[in-house]
C-alpha cells in the first residue's frame, strides 16, 4: 500500500499551527447577541418562585426566558443513532430549562443580551426562591429506601440489566478458589481545550442554523429538532474545527437552547458558550462506577466462572443512559475465556453532573476493576501476572455469544510479549531485591479489549462523497467529524490509496454541514477510521472504476487491464503509463456527448465490529511517605490492526496514556457533601495532568490485518486511555504489597492506604 | 402540475428584503488586506518605465506588484465551457498585469495595503512613463491599412467568419426589389447594483480560495487556475448571493488578480473590489456593432434572399471573442424564412473597454438592425408591418440547417396577435389622423427569437444533488448560480413538483462552492431553467423512485402502483394515502440492515436547444422640438414555453424591458476622441433609466409547451431586453417618418435627425 501505513503529515497541521483553523468562536457573526444560563445554586430541589423583572429591565438585555417559556418537549441528549422503535431510543428526560433542580448548576433560566457583560449582570438580577432537599450525591444515597425521586416514577434507577452465559453457580462449585473484590472509580471530566460553544440564527425561511463545536453534527440536528418540536429538516448544523471533545461533545449540550433562544429574538444570531466552570458541571463527566467481582479459578490458574455486579452513577440526567454500564458488562467477558459469566448492572440518577460518553466509554472503569481483580488472583496463585493472563485469553475464532461477532484477529498475546520485552520484565523481576525503605519500585501491567464502533448495539452508518476535479485531484466529503483525532488525514490517505493518487491530490472538506455533508452519525466509539473508512473506500472504488471506464473508451484497452497509480492510468501488469489521470478527468468534464464529471456519493451500513486489544506495562517508584508515584518506564502496546498512519497512531497513544495516567493518579471532581456544590470545577483545583507530570511514554504496535476493516484497521482512538490506571495500580501493588481499590490513586489516598497497611509506622520501623 | 406554474414567492425574498442575504462584502474576513489596481491614464501605448519605490515605502503598504512580477501565462476570461480542442478554446490574450496599454484604465500594477485608503494613497506614489500612440476608438480606425496592432500579429482582427445558405446572388436576381440598410449600435454597460468584487486567501495546504461575485463559479475556478498556471483543483471558488450580473460577471474580471495577490502576501486574505468608475471601463461592456443589411423581396412581400455584414467592436481584449458576432449571425436567420442567406462578421480589437456578454448576447444589436430593416421594407411595400412579418415567419418544424436543431414550438404569430390586441393596433391605425405639429404619436413593433442555452455551440452540462432529510424535506444543491434572476426559486419549484412535496420542504443551498456544488457552467444564456432544470428533474425523479422503492418494501404494494403527492405516499389511481413520506425517509436513515439515506447526485448533458420568441408593441409620443420620446403604451409578449413561475416571469420582463428602453433611448459610454479617456463612467453622467423614466410595462405570455424543456419551458431571462429598441425606433418612424439608424435614440440624435429631415424648420413651417 502506498498511502495507508504512511507517516503522512496531518492535513490540518499547518492550518492549526499557524492559527488559521476556524473554530466556532472564529466564525461568530457580527452583531451577535450573547446568552448566559441562570443556574441553580442548590443541587436538589424545586423553584418556588422566580422573578426576572429586574433582569429584563436592564438596558441591553434583549430577553429573559425561564422554564415556563420553553417548549415542553422532553428530549434526549446522547449522541446515539436514532432508533425507529421507541423502546430503543435514548431516555428523554429533560426540557430546555427546568423547574426541578437535579444538580448544582441546573438550568433554570437564560438571558440574552447585547454583550457578555450585560448578560452576566442580568443573571445577578434574577431572583429565585427554592424548596431545597438534601442532595443525593452517591448511587447508594439515591438507591436508599424512601430516597426522594430525582425524576418522578424512576425510583432513581435509569435502567437495570443482567445477563448470564453458562451456569456460573455450577462453575463456582467446580472452582478450586473463589476470589472476590470491590472497586470504585472516580468522577472525572474531559477537559477539552475548547469549552462547549454554539451560536444559532434563523435563515430567511425560518430554518434554524446552529454552528457548533460538536462531535455529532447530524445527531445534533435531530436532537435540536426534538427539543424544539420542529421537523428535523428545518434545522441545519455546521461543525467547524474542534478544540477537542473526548466524548463530552458527543452529547448535545448547548445547541438546543441556543437554537431556541434565536427564535426568541426573531432569528438574530445568539451565542451560547460555557465557561470552563460551567463545562465541568453542565456538560458531561465520566461515570463513577462501583464494581463487585467474583471469580472462580482452578489451582492451575484456569478461569472457570465470573460474576460482575456494578452500579453506575449517572448524575441528574440520563444522557447516554445505561449504555456505559452495558459497555462495561460486554467488555468484561471479551478478554478472558471462562465457562460461565454473570453480569448485573444498574445505572442510577444522583444529584451530580450528568455522566456521558468519555474516551473509553466504560472501559476505563471496568478494566480498572477487572485487571486489578485479575492481578489479585494471579498474585494469590503466585503466578506471573502475564503468564496467568496468557493462559486464559480468548483466541482467534472466539464468537461472542451475545453479539454473534467472531474474532478474526487477536494480537494480545504478542502485545504482552512485546511489552515484557520493552520493559525488560523478566530481567527486572529476576534481579529485584526485597522491597525496603520508603521509596519502592514495582512492575505492573494490565490488558484491555475494545470494540470498533457500536455494531450490533447501534446502527453504524457512514457516508462519503468524492468529486474529481479537472486535474484529477478530488474533494472528499465525509460526515465523519474531525475533532482533533486526525480523521481528516487518515480518510484522505484511504482515498488516495484506493483511487491511486498522491495524498496532496485529496482535498478533504473538513467542515461538516448537515445540509450538504453525507450522513454519518459522527465521531465516537473509535469508529471513524473503521466505519467511515469503509464508506470512503466504497466511494473511492466507485471513482476509480469510473476513471478506468473512461480510460477504456479513450484507449480501447479493457478497463480490467488498466490500473490507476500515482495519478496515471497504467497497464496491468507492468505499470506502463497509458494516460495521465488529468487527461481522463478533463474528458469526463468536457466530452461533447457524454460529459459527466466523475463523482461518487455513497452510504455504507457497516454490520461488522472488531475487537482491538492491547496492554500497558509500567514500572513505578512509589514514594510512600508523600504518596507520590513516579512513572519510571511505561509502554502501551496496541493491536489496532493495520495502522493507517503510524505517526497519528503514536499521537493517539501519547494523548490517551496521558489521560489514563491523570485518571489513575490525580483527577476527581469533588462536591460539598452537604450542598452538592462542586468544589474544584476549574483548572486550578481540578488536578489535570500537566506536561511536568507526564512521563516519557513508550509504545509498540502489533499490526494484525483485520479483514472486516477497510484496510485491516481496528479501533485506536480510545484504547490507549483504558489500561494505564490498572497497570499503575498493579505496579504499586508490586512495589508496596498494598491493593488500591479506588481511583484516583492520589497522594492522599495512597498515604492513607500505606498508613493503614502499617508501611508508614514509626520512621525507620519497617 | 402543482408547483410548476405557481406564482410562488421567491425563496430568497425575505432574506433579501430584510438585509440578511450575504454578499461578498458581508463575508469579508477580519484583518483583510485591500488591493487596488494602478490603471493607465492613456488608452494606447507602452510603459517605458515604472517606479514603485515610493509606494512600497508608504507605511501600511504590504506589497506592490507590476507586470514584471506576475506569471507570464496568458489566459482567457470568457465564461464559456472549456473545450479540449485548443481550436475551440477562448482567446487567451492577457496577463494578470500588462506593460502594453490597450485601453484607458488598463491594469499595470497593483498595491496591497492594510486598508483601502492606504492602498489609494500608494497608487498616487507610483511613477510611470509611457510611450503613447493615438487611440483606435472605433473598428474603422483599427481596420485601417497600417493601423498599429493592439495585439501583435492580429491586424486588430479577433476573428472573421461567414456562411452562406442557398444561393443569395440568385435569390437577389429573382427578387423584385432589393433593400439595403445600415445600422449602428452603442456601447453600454450592465450597471449591476453590485460592482465586481472578490477576496482570496490560501488555505492550510496552499490551495487558493476565492469568494467572488461571479455568475460562473466553476468556470472562474478554471480560469484562475489558467491565469496562475496551477492545477485547477488547487483553486476553490465560493459564490454567495449576487447583486446582479447581466453578463458582466460571466467574465472572470477580478478573481485571477485577487488570487495571485494573496500568494504575494503568504495567503493572507486580500480584497479586490472595483469602484463604479472602474466597473464601467475595467469589467465588460456591450459591443457596438455596425450592420449592413441587404434583402431581396417579392412584390407580395415574400422574402427571398438576405445578406448581413457586421463589424463588432470588441475593445482592448477578446473576452467572449467572436461569439457575440456569431450569435448575431445565427439570430439573423432564425425568425424569417428565406431561400438564401449570407452572413459575414468581423470582430475587431479597439482601444476601448473590453466588450463581453451582456443580457441578450448580440441579440439586442442584431434585432435592432434586423427589425428596423424589416420595418423599412414593410413600409416601402406599403404593407402592415405585422402582416409582412407574419407572411415570412419560420414555422414549427423548421430545422436550422447549421445547428440541425428543429423547432418544436413557435408561438410568435400568437404573440403578435396578442400584442396587436393589447395595444389595439388596428383601431389605432384606422382612427389615426395625418401627423402634424411637433408632438406626434406612432405605433411600432418588433419581433425576436432567442435560443435557450448555447447548444450546439458549447457544452450544456448541469448537475444537481438532492438529499432527503429524516422529515421528508430535501436539500437541493445545484451548480446553477442564483444571480438575482430567481433560479433558486424555480429550481425549487421543479424539485417540489417532481418529488411530490410542498415547496417549503425544498431547502435550496444558494451558495455555490466549487469544492462541493455539482458541476454546472453557471448563469448565462438564459439556460438555467432549461439546462439546470433538466438536471434537477433527473435528480428529483431518482429521489422519487427511491422513495417508492422503500415504500414498496414497507407496504408490499408494487412501487408502480404508488405515487408521491404532497409528502404522502398514495395509491394510484385514486390517491388513497398509504404512508407519510416522513415515515419512509426515517426508514431510509435507520433501517437496521439497509439504511441508506435517499440521495441523488446527477449530471446532465443537455444536447438540446429551443427558440424562445416574442415581440414588443409600443405606442410613443415624440416631442420633436426637444427630441423626447414618451412611451404611452408598451407590451412585451413572450413565447417562453411553459412559465415555471409567472410572477418571476413578469419580473424578468419588467427588468428586461426597462433595460431595453435604456438601450433604446439613453445609454452610451462616451470617450474623449483624442485621448480615449472615458467621459461618463459614472452613474451621474451615464444616463441609466431611472424609475421616473420607466413607463408602465404591459406584457403577455403565449405558453407553448416545449418538449425539450424539463417542464415545457424555454428561455426568458434575456429575451425581454431584445426587442424594445427596434419597436421604439419603428414607432418613432411611424410618428415622424424619420428612420433612425443608430442607438441610442437620445434627444440630441433625434433632434439632429428631425432637423435634418426638415421637421424642425421655421416654427410652424410644417
Automatic annotation (TrEMBL), chains A, B:
Residues 18-134 form the Aldehyde oxidase/xanthine dehydrogenase a/b hammerhead domain. The keyword Cell membrane does not apply. GO terms for cellular component: xanthine dehydrogenase complex. The keyword Ubl conjugation does not apply. GO terms for molecular function: iron ion binding; xanthine dehydrogenase activity. It comes from the Bacteria. Pfam families: Ald_Xan_dh_C (PF01315), MoCoBD_1 (PF02738), MoCoBD_2 (PF20256). Keywords: Molybdenum, Oxidoreductase. This is Xanthine dehydrogenase molybdenum-binding subunit XdhA. It comes from Formimonas warabiya.
Amino acid at each position: 500500500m502506498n498511502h495507508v501505513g504512511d507517516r503522512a503529515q496531518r492535513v490540518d497541521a499547518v492550518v492549526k499551527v499557524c492559527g488559521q483553523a476556524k473554530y466556532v468562536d472564529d466564525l461568530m457573526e457580527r452583531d451577535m447577541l450573547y446568552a448566559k444560563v441562570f443556574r441553580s445554586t442548590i443541587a436538589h430541589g424545586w423553584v418556588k418562585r422566580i422573578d426576572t423583572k429586574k433582569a429584563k429591565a436592564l438596558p441591553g438585555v434583549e430577553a429573559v426566558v425561564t422554564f415556563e417559556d420553553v417548549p415542553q418537549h422532553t428530549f434526549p441528549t446522547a449522541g446515539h443513532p436514532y432508533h425507529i422503535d421507541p423502546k430503543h431510543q435514548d431516555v428523554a428526560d429533560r426540557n430546555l430549562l427546568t423547574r426541578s433542580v437535579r444538580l448544582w448548576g441546573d438550568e433554570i433560566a437564560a438571558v440574552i443580551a447585547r454583550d457578555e457583560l450585560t448578560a452576566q449582570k442580568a443573571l445577578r438580577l434574577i431572583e429565585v426562591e427554592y424548596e431545597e432537599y438534601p442532595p443525593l450525591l452517591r448511587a447508594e444515597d439515591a438507591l436508599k429506601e424512601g430516597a426522594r425521586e430525582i425524576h418522578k416514577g424512576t425510583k432513581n434507577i435509569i435502567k437495570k440489566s443482567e445477563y448470564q452465559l453458562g451456569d456460573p453457580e455450577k462453575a463456582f462449585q467446580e472452582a478450586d478458589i473463589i476470589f472476590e473484590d470491590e472497586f470504585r472509580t472516580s468522577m472525572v471530566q474531559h477537559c477539552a481545550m475548547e469549552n462547549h460553544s454554539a451560536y444559532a440564527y434563523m435563515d430567511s425561511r425560518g430554518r434554524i442554523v446552529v454552528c457548533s463545536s460538536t462531535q455529532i453534527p447530524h445527531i445534533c440536528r435531530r436532537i435540536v429538532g426534538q427539543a424544539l418540536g420542529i421537523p428535523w429538516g428545518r434545522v441545519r448544523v455546521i461543525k467547524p474545527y474542534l478544540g477537542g471533545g473526548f466524548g463530552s461533545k458527543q452529547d448535545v449540550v448547548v445547541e438546543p437552547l441556543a437554537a431556541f433562544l434565536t427564535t426568541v429574538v426573531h432569528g438574530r444570531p445568539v451565542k451560547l458558550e460555557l465557561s470552563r466552570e460551567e463545562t465541568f458541571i453542565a456538560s458531561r463527566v465520566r461515570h463513577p462506577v462501583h464494581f463487585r467481582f467474583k471469580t472462580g479459578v482452578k489451582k492451575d490458574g484456569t478461569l472457570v466462572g465470573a460474576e460482575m455486579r456494578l452500579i453506575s452513577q449517572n448524575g441528574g440526567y440520563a444522557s447516554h443512559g445505561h449504555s456505559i454500564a452495558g459497555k462495561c458488562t460486554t467488555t468484561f467477558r471479551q478478554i478472558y475465556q471462562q465457562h460461565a459469566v454473570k453480569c448485573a448492572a444498574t445505572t442510577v440518577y444522583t444529584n451530580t453532573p450528568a455522566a456521558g460518553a468519555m474516551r473509553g466509554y466504560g472501559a476505563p472503569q471496568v478494566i480498572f476493576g477487572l485487571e486489578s481483580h485479575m492481578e489479585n488472583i494471579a498474585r494469590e496463585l503466585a503466578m506471573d501476572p502475564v503468564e496467568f493472563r496468557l493462559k486464559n485469553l480468548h483466541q482467534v475464532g472466539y464468537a461472542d455469544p451475545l453479539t454473534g461477532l467472531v474474532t478474526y484477529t487477536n494480537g494480545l498475546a504478542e502485545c504482552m510479549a512485546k511489552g515484557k520485552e520493552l520493559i525488560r520484565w523478566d530481567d527486572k523481576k529476576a534481579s529485584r531485591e526485597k522491597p525496603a525503605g520508603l521509596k519502592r519500585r514495582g512492575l505492573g501491567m494490565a490488558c484491555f479489549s475494545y470494540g470498533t464502533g457500536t455494531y450490533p448495539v447501534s446502527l453504524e452508518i457512514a457516508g462519503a462523497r468524492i468529486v474529481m476535479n479537472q486535474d484529477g485531484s478530488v474533494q472528499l466529503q465525509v460526515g465523519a467529524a474531525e475533532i482533533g483525532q486526525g480523521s481528516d488525514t487518515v480518510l484522505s490517505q484511504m482515498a488516495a490509496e484506493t483511487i491511486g493518487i498522491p495524498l496532496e491530490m485529496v482535498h478533504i472538506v473538513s467542515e461538516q454541514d448537515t445540509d450538504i455533508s453525507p450522513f454519518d452519525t459522527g465521531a465516537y466509539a473509535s469508529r471513524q477510521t473503521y466505519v467511515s473508512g469503509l464508506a470512503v473506500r466504497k466511494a473511492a472504488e466507485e471513482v476509480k472504476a469510473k476513471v478506468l471506464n473512461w480510460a477504456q473508451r479513450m484507449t480501447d484497452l479493457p478497463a480490467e487491464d488498466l490500473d490507476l497509480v500515482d495519478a496515471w492510468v497504467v497497464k496491468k501488469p507492468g505499470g506502463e503509463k497509458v494516460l495521465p489521470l488529468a487527461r481522463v478527468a478533463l474528458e469526463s468534464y468536457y466530452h461533447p456527448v457524454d460529459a459527466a464529471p466523475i463523482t461518487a456519493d455513497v452510504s455504507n451500513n457497516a454490520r461488522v465490529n472488531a475487537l482491538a486489544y492491547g496492554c500497558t506495562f509500567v514500572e513505578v517508584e512509589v514514594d510512600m511517605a508523600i504518596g507520590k508515584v513516579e512513572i519510571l518506564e511505561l509502554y502501551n502496546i496496541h493491536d489496532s490492526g493495520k495502522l493507517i498512519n503510524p505517526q497519528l497512531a503514536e499521537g493517539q497513544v501519547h494523548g490517551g496514556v496521558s489521560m489514563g495516567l491523570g485518571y489513575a493518579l490525580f483527577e476527581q471532581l469533588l462536591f460539598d457533601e452537604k450542598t452538592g456544590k462542586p468544589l474544584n470545577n476549574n483548572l486550578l483545583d481540578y488536578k489535570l495532568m500537566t506536561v511536568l507530570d507526564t512521563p516519557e511514554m513508550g509504545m509498540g504496535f502489533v499490526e494484525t490485518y483485520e479483514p472486516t476493516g477497510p484496510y485491516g484497521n481496528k479501533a485506536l482512538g480510545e484504547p490507549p486511555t483504558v489500561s494505564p490506571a490498572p497497570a499503575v495500580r498493579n505496579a504499586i501493588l508490586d512495589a508496596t504489597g498494598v491493593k488500591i481499590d479506588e481511583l484516583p490513586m492520589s497522594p492522599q489516598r495512597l498515604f492513607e492506604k500505606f498508613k493503614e497497611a502499617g508501611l508508614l509506622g514509626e520512621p525507620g520501623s519497617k
